Amino acid sequence: MEKQERADELAGCFALQDVVWNARPYGSGHINETFVLEAKDCPERYILQWINGFVFKRPRDVMENIAGVTGWLQKCIRAEGGDPKRETLTIIPTKNGDLLYEDEDGGAWRVFRFIDGAFGRDLPENPGVFEETGRGFGRFQRRLSGYPAETLKEVIPGFHDTPGRYKQLTTAIERDAVGRRSEVRAEIEFCHARKDEYGLLLTQLTEGKIPLRVTHNDTKVNNLLLDSDTGCALCVIDLDTVMPGLAAYDFGDAIRTGASTAAEDERDLNKVGVSLEMYRAFAQGFLSEAGSRMERDEICSLAVGAKLMTLENGLRFLTDYLNGDVYFKVHHPRQNLDRARAQFALAEDMDHKIKEMLDIVIDAAGRF
Ligand code: ADP
Ligand code: GN1
Ligand code: MG
């Protein structure tokens, strides 16, 4: 059965008001299928999502992680005088009290309260918006600093294991499943030439120079909602990948998406680069919330993280292109290749600016 058809029927399985719900496709994520549930004369709206079972092999683990983390965040938000219904996700259980609903094809579905009066962006329009985005992700990391990390399930093993991502690329190159290898020789060369860089952060972690924290791990700019009235950071969403990780992953992925001068899949590579003005704005916001606990090595790792997350996503997009677009949603057949090329162009620009990027985070931390 098509997802849309299923979505229309599924509202009745969740603990919602007993009215006729209409499901409309929503958002621009690459992984899940998202719908907004609306009903005539009903002010409440909800998000209904099909959890991508190819990406998340154990959706129940995903939901248990989210339940734990949102429960913790609700307490922090209440203690800080905030509104837990708007500042974090609220899971709406099924009528049986379960965190998810399994359909007869084995697909997993969940419902969240819709956060009204808020907006997200694929690309922030100015440094002010991006500074708030930094504050939002930094606050998320600060609030979760005491969370018992050992209770979190590793929902995607090796999610930010960049050397592992490179290995997956080499496997995809060898298999050449859909005959695209000969078309991407230059991109493959680019990835081989940088193979010594992929382990930079993991080495620092193993050597004890930077700490493991509870991180979001998918801090694309559109995974943060801002308040429509005040423009302030409101709610971090898309909590599927909350796991132990590095501050540099969250800092880095937000820079990759929000400080880029072009879209993630921009074809005109002359347009692609990192804006240091945007980078600085994000760094100031992020560090104002999460920076006080960080030592100098960790602060420096943030700049490295920006480059590494950009390379890592490039590796992943190229791998998926070679595998026949089985992981990321694509709207046309060359989109993963466009995405990979744009990431590589962005990483090259970061190579030229890495010294300034390091200086900016040190400066924004204001303590060294
Ligand atoms: P994906 O993993 O596919 O990126 P997301 O969980 O990020 O899925 O959801 C996709 C989009 O749906 C988001 O970018 C956001 O615009 C919107 N969205 C998700 N959850 C909510 C929510 N609780 N309230 C309002 N909008 C939401
Ligand atoms: C996916 O779910 P979404 O669209 O926010 C992906 C991220 C990638 C990103 C690239 C679970 O994020 O890791 O960085 O696409 N999420 C997962 O745009 O793989
Ligand atoms: Mg998302």
**Helix fraction?**
40-55%
CATH homology superfamily of the largest domain: Aminoglycoside phosphotransferase (APH), C-terminal lobe
The portion of residues forming beta strands comes to 5-15%
CATH architecture title of the largest domain: Alpha-Beta Complex
Coarse shape = globular
Instruction: Give the radius of gyration.
Output: 20 Å
Q: Please state the average pLDDT score.
A: 97
Query: What is the CATH first-level class name of the largest domain?
Result: Alpha Beta
Q: How far from one another are the termini? A: 58 Å
Structure class? alpha+beta
The CATH topology annotation of the largest domain reads as Aminoglycoside 3'-phosphotransferase, Chain: A, domain 2
- What is the H/E string? HEEEHHEEEEHHHHEEEEHHHH
Q: How many strands?
A: 11
Major sheet characteristics? 6 strands, antiparallel
Q: What small molecules does the structure contain?
A: adenosine-5'-diphosphate, 2-acetamido-2-deoxy-1-O-phosphono-alpha-D-glucopyranose, magnesium ion
Q: Spans with pLDDT under 50 lasting ≥5 residues? A: none
Tally of separate helices = 11
What's the number of domains? 2
